[in-house]
Specification:
By secondary structure, the chain is α/β, with parallel strands linked by helices. The protein has eleven helices and eight strands. It has a single domain, classed as 3-Layer(aba) Sandwich (Rossmann fold), CATH 3.40.50. The longest helix has 16 residues. This is AB hydrolase-1 domain-containing protein.
């Protein structure tokens, strides 16, 4: 299979009230001129970058699906906007929907066979909201450990926190109350949480996650403005966000999956299953939030599930 359209680049993205023109970085794996709808992948975080999702590039080689990754505005290789930290009016859903629209238009992905969307974690929020607008060219939707609303996500995290060892729970609760989110005690407690629910790979963290941690530590603008200072709560600009009332408007076949021990707990996954008209939900046993990174055999299951879903007849 010819790989004659691998590449990377940027597309200009104009944001209202931002004086300079910003840019969105993208990476293409596969041939966009093939007859297969392209898969556009939305990363999580917010603020991580695309690198930890690169295993999905294998969908090109295994299923002939061209894959388009991109870094959302404010993080990784796209334009950073540190002067907008704390600007709740800017960092809203509408910004990310406009960026996705702009990318689709710039790369002409709506034309021909159209495109699929896979949104992981936070990216699942944007993917679901975008699909609910019934955009032209969208063929299928994958919500990978997605989040239906901030309230349901926080409720799910509370359920998980009560399953942690008592000393870990105590450390998280006390350090959160003090606002000591950078303390060694809080970080050590978070490490227990991450290893059990965020990514169950051994050793932890897998190398694919290292760029994500680097991006979020070097520029906290997006993460802290949208979610707040604690990775176990949502107190930022998305604190009241929900897509649940719009889910019934998603008109394309949709695959939803999460892990048995996922930070995207069933409580934030059920609304997708209840309200999206054409939907299938899979939960992977003994898996966390990063199903595609945790074990080689689990990676194969995830890629097989997604690839078969995206290539099956309607």
């Amino acid at each position: 299979m010819a790989d004659n359209n691998h590449g990377e680049g940027t597309v200009p993205f104009k944001i209202q009230h931002i004086d300079t023109t910003c840019h969105t970085y993208y990476k293409i794996i596969g041939d966009l001129s093939s007859n297969s709808p392209r898969l556009v992948v939305l990363h999580g975080g917010p603020g991580t970058g695309h690198e930890y999702l690169l295993p999905f590039s294998r969908l090109w080689h295994q299923f002939g699906i061209p894959v388009v990754f991109y870094d959302q505005i404010g993080c990784a290789a796209s334009t950073h906007l540190p002067h907008t930290a704390g600007d709740d009016s800017l960092w809203q859903e509408s910004l990310f929907l406009a960026e996705l629209d702009n990318l689709l238009d710039s790369l002409q992905l709506r034309d021909g066979p159209g495109y699929h969307i896979l949104g992981h974690s936070w990216g699942g929020r944007i993917a679901a909201a975008f699909a609910a607008t019934q955009p032209r060219g969208l063929q299928r939707l994958v919500l990978a450990s997605g989040i239906a609303s901030s309230q349901s996500w926080v409720e799910g995290i509370q359920i998980i926190r009560r399953q942690l060892p008592s000393d870990t729970q105590l450390a998280i609760n006390e350090e959160e109350q003090k606002g000591n989110f950078d303390s060694a005690r809080f970080r050590d407690a978070l490490d227990v949480f991450f290893r059990n629910y965020f990514c169950r790979a051994k050793p932890f963290p897998p190398k694919e996650l290292l760029p994500a941690f680097k991006h979020m530590s070097e520029d906290k603008t997006v993460r802290e403005t949208i979610a707040g200072p604690s990775p176990l709560n949502c107190t930022g600009s998305f604190r009241d966000w929900t897509c649940i009332p719009r889910l019934h408007q998603i008109a394309v076949p949709t695959l939803v999956y999460n892990g048995e021990f996922d930070t995207s707990n069933d409580i934030t996954t059920v609304p997708f299953f209840e309200h999206i008209p054409r939907v299938r939900w899979i939960t992977f046993p003994d898996a966390g939030h990063m199903c595609h990174l945790e074990r080689p055999e689990l990676t194969e299951k995830v890629l097989g599930l997604v690839g078969e879903f995206l290539t099956q007849e309607k």
